[in-house]
């Protein structure tokens, strides 16, 4: 598989039905409560080079405010230095080291 090739194979896919959804208020407390109980799907601006070639650690760079990529928040943690961050997963999972992203909590 090359870097830009698609690894989707229809015969390996599973059908999923979404029967309900809720919008989450745009504040930290609401997002924390939602993530504590289920996966939360978000849109992020993935246009900057640093995001596209993320290799680990807590990502702090500001990429912009125009969502162009979907991700899933699966949790949140805090570093030993006290930096809070969201744990994200997406289709780039196989390309990202560490199995997913860590976005700084206060990132726009």
In short:
This protein has 108 residues and is α+β, with helices and mostly antiparallel strands. It has two helices and four strands, in the order H-E-H-E-E-E.
Describe this structure in words.
The chain is an alpha+beta fold and 108 residues long. The protein has one domain: Cysteine proteinases (Cathepsin B, Chain A, Alpha-Beta Complex). The chain is built from two helices and four strands; from the N terminus they run αβαβββ. Strands 1-2-3-4 form a four-stranded antiparallel beta sheet, covered by helices on one side. The termini are far apart. The model has no long low-confidence stretch (mean pLDDT 78). Belongs to the peptidase C1 family. It comes from Platanthera zijinensis. It holds the Pfam family Peptidase_C1. GO terms for molecular function: cysteine-type peptidase activity.
Helix/strand/pairing category: alpha+beta
What is the N-to-C order of secondary-structure elements (H for helix, E for strand)? HEHEEE
Let me know the average pLDDT: 78
- Roughly what percent helix? 10-25%
The CATH class assignment is Alpha Beta
Strand percentage = 15-25%
Please give the largest β-sheet. Answer: 4 strands, antiparallel
Measured between the Cα atoms of the first and last residue, the distance is: 33 Å
Q: What is the count of distinct domains?
A: 1
Overall body shape:
globular
InterPro entries: Papain-like_cys_pep_sf (IPR038765), Peptidase_C1A (IPR013128), Peptidase_C1A_C (IPR000668)
Protein name: Vignain
Domain Peptidase C1A papain C-terminal: 5-97
GO molecular function, one term: cysteine-type peptidase activity
């Amino acid at each position: 598989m090359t870097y830009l090739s698609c690894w989707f194979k229809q015969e390996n896919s599973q059908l999923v039905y979404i029967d309900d959804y809720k919008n989450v208020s745009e504040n930290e407390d609401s997002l924390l409560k939602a993530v504590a109980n289920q996966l939360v799907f978000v849109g992020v601006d993935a246009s900057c080079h640093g995001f596209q070639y993320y290799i680990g650690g807590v990502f702090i760079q500001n990429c912009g405010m125009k969502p162009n990529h979907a991700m899933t928040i699966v949790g949140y943690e805090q570093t030993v230095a006290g930096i809070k961050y969201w744990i994200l997963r997406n289709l780039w999972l196989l390309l990202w080291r560490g199995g997913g992203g860590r976005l700084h909590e206060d990132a726009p």
